[in-house]
Amino acid sequence: MKKVTKYQTLDGVLHDTEQAARHHADKVYGVVLSSLAHEALRVEKYSDMLEFFNKNLDRFLKLQTLKDDMKLQEDDIF
Question: How far apart are CA 56 and CA 3, in angstroms?
């Protein structure tokens, strides 16, 4: 019998190495960030940008959660 260590990212995907998990988490973060940035670039007026931020607060919070997922959690918090 062997003890096996895996790394799980926020989306539930298991990875064999910490590096692979970080790479995957970074890629997921980048996709969400790029999408949000692309949409923001189409906003031309200041007042529309304020509205864009207000309407997308949940997506900004998701970005923070995805960013935090790139850090390895300590075993003692489980």
Answer: 43
Which pair of tokens denotes residue 8?
């799980």
Helical residues (DSSP H) of the chain, grouped into ranges: 18-41, 46-55, 57-68
Sequence-distant (≥ 6) Cβ neighbours of residue 66 within 8 angstroms:
10, 25, 28, 29, 32
Contact 52, 40 (CB under 8 A): yes
22 touches 9 (CB < 8 A) = no
The two structure tokens encoding residue 75? 């075993």
Q: How far is CA 60 from the centre of its chain?
A: 10
Render pLDDT for 4-56 as a digit per residue (tens, 0 to 9): 899 999 999 999 999 999 999 999 999 999 999 999 999 999 999 999 999 99
